[in-house]
Design goal:
Elements lengths: L2 E5 L8 E5 L5 H10 L1 H5 L5 H18 L3 H7 L10 H11 L2 E5 L8 E2 L4 E9 L7 E3 L1
Parallel strand pairs: 3-5
Antiparallel strand pairs: 1-2, 3-4, 5-6
């Protein structure tokens, strides 16, 4: 099953929806796509390597802040390693872009990072083999 990622690319007025595999790295993949979508769409672009590098960079930031238990959790496979809202600030820092996550609050769409929003990611329940939830 493919997940869907909403990317509000830079200052574009229109929002396009792109398929992102719900593979345990889906949030990282969405942000990699938002950073450089032309590269992301290239057949030679190794999405998994780039998503894993962003996850690793996030883990390093968490460790530097003394949040070792959060860092160890992100190293886990499947649903146990999915990032949660407390991790999003560090993911924004690691990716270098700001993003919003739709679906984690009923009343608002939270913004993570300090720059203008470059991606909106939808949080939803998707049966993906890795767990009951997915960032899409």
């Amino acid at each position: 099953m493919m997940a869907r990622c909403i990317l509000a690319m830079l200052a574009l007025v229109l929002t396009d929806v792109y398929g992102i595999a719900p593979d345990g790295l889906c949030l990282y993949s969405c942000l990699i796509a938002a950073t450089n979508f032309d590269d992301y769409r290239s057949p030679s672009f190794d999405r998994t390597v780039h998503a894993e590098a962003l996850r690793r960079k996030t883990i390093t930031l968490l460790e530097q802040e003394g949040l070792c238990s959060a860092a160890r959790r992100l190293e886990l496979s499947g649903k146990d390693g999915y990032p949660d809202e407390p991790d999003f600030h560090y993911i924004a820092m690691a990716s270098g872009i700001s993003f919003e996550v739709e679906g984690i609050s009923e009343r608002y769409v939270p913004h993570y990072g300090t720059a203008p929003v470059r991606a909106r990611v939808r949080f939803s329940s998707v049966a993906d083999g890795a767990g009951p939830v997915s960032y899409t």
